[in-house]
Write a structure and sequence with these properties.
single chain, alpha/beta, 14 helices, abc type-2 transporter like fold, five-stranded mixed beta sheet, 10% strand
Length: 364
């Protein structure tokens, strides 16, 4: 029995001395429960909307205040004409536009009925459905309190009239596939070289570290292009997801994101000591953030501020915005230049860190 207890004690000491094992056992579960608990929710709060008030009377102002008092919405723009609606959606500033008809208060007081349009960005169909339902309920309750026939809310969905789920899932799936496959394959490939000892041959060659890195990723870039074309073809021919914007721009952005994923895979390979660690980091360190914090499934606006800030360092978030803007909204480079520069900045950072960590000699 004493031998058994001594053996158990030795195992405990072995675990406690390994920082990585301690993080997996204690830190990771805490981080996961916090992220899952706050990120996974179907409720919508503080969604950005725009108001187009053609009447500008006391009733429309009161209705707008009721929308804001619900904590579901926050007004980011007051539009002056219908021509600004499309631009508001394309630039991604608002999820919904509320349009009050002319002479709203007069129609309401005279006939007991007034009309309001709810125009929703349905590139995210779940969010569009929930926001329109919330607003319709608020307008209906106002009519019941006034003991009138109520306010008739006409709902119109932009970019996805049938609220097909494919319109939301395809951009996210593209980001997840390109990120996980490219990053994982690159990190495993370079780590395998270190494990088999063939990296020594490269290190004593005349090639510079930056040349070795680009030489390793070039084949994966070419294969990723084939994957991109396959994904886009399946999206169009099987799921009927349109490409309203420039195909050339979309391909450029996909290749840019692939280069980003490859550069992240290189960075992982410089940290990982073997293929198993590289695969673990690629799968678990990337998959959860891509699914939870990129806006792929759950709205980022509904998350706590800490997670919203954290989502800004998740590259797929910006790529998904780009894909939705080009494919579904027909936007051009003028609408996605900021997100494109962010992806370029990520590439520069990842490549810079990789080159810095890529030693000219092997280390244990």
């Amino acid at each position: 029995m004493n031998r058994f207890l001594a053996f158990v004690k030795k195992e405990f000491l072995h675990i406690f001395r390994d920082v990585r094992t301690m993080m997996i056992l204690f830190i990771m579960p805490i981080a996961q429960i916090l992220i899952f608990g706050f990120a996974i929710t179907t409720e919508i709060k503080n969604a950005s909307i725009a108001i187009l008030d053609k009447s500008k009377d006391e009733v429309t102002r009161e209705l707008t205040q009721k929308l804001l008092a619900s904590d579901y919405y926050t007004v980011s723009d007051y539009l002056s004409s219908e021509a600004e609606i499309e631009s508001s959606f394309t630039k991604g500033r608002n999820k919904m536009v509320v349009v009050y008809e002319p002479q709203f208060a007069q129609n309401y007081e005279k006939n007991g009925v007034a009309k309001v349009q709810l125009l929703c960005d349905a590139s995210d169909p779940n969010t569009a459905r929930i926001l329109s339902q919330y607003a319709t309920g608020i307008f209906a309750s106002y009519g019941e309190m006034a003991q009138s026939n109520g306010i008739q809310a006409e709902v119109r969905m932009y970019y996805n009239e049938n609220l097909d789920g494919f319109y939301m899932s395809i951009p996210g799936i593209m980001a997840m596939i390109l990120m996980l496959v490219s990053a994982m394959m690159t990190s495993i490939s370079i780590t395998r070289e270190k494990e088999l000892g063939s990296m020594e041959v490269l290190l004593i060659s005349p090639l510079k570290p930056i040349q070795i890195i680009f030489g390793k990723v070039t084949p994966y870039i070419l294969m990723a292009i084939v994957n991109i074309l396959s994904i886009l073809a399946l999206s169009y021919w099987v799921f009927n997801v349109p490409v309203k914007g420039s195909m050339a721009l979309l391909l450029f952005e996909c290749i840019l994101f692939t280069v980003l994923a490859l550069s992240l895979g290189i960075l992982i390979s410089t940290v990982a000591k073997n293929q198993m660690v590289a695969m673990f980091m690629s799968l678990f360190a990337l998959m959860l953030p891509v699914i939870l914090l990129s806006g792929f499934i759950f709205p980022i606006d509904n998350m706590p501020l800490v997670l919203q800030w954290l989502s800004n360092i998740i590259p797929p978030k910006w790529f998904i915005i780009i894909v939705k803007t080009i494919m579904l909204k027909g936007g051009g480079l003028a609408h996605v230049w900021k997100e494109t520069l962010i992806l370029v900045a990520f590439i520069v950072v990842f490549v810079g860190l990789s080159v810095k960590k890529f030693n000219v000699r092997l280390q244990d």
